[in-house]
Amino acid sequence: MTLDRAVLAFAGIMILLSVVLTMWVSPLFIWFTVFIGLNMLQSAFTGFCPAAFLFRKLGVKSGTAF
C-alpha cells in the first residue's frame, strides 16, 4: 500500500468513526468530522498532512501525492 492510499483509507475510517460516534454517543462528535474535513482541505492547499507524516515515519512507501 502506498502512502497516498494509506492516507485516504485512514481519512475514510476516521470520517466513518466520527459519524458513528455522532449518531450513538454524542452530537458534539460532529466537530471531529469538521476537524477531519478542515485538515483534508488544508492538506489539499499546503501539501502538509500530519497523517502522511506519521505513515512515512512508520515506513509506508511514498506515493505520488505525498
UniProtKB/TrEMBL annotation:
The chain crosses the membrane at residues 7-25, 31-55. Keywords: Membrane, Transmembrane, Transmembrane helix. It comes from the Bacteria. The keyword Aminoacyl-tRNA synthetase does not apply. Pfam families: YgaP-like_TM. Gene3D superfamilies: 6.10.140.1340. Residues 2-56 form the Inner membrane protein YgaP-like transmembrane domain. This is DUF2892 domain-containing protein. It comes from Nitratireductor aquimarinus. The lineage of its organism: Bacteria, Pseudomonadati, Pseudomonadota, Alphaproteobacteria, Hyphomicrobiales.
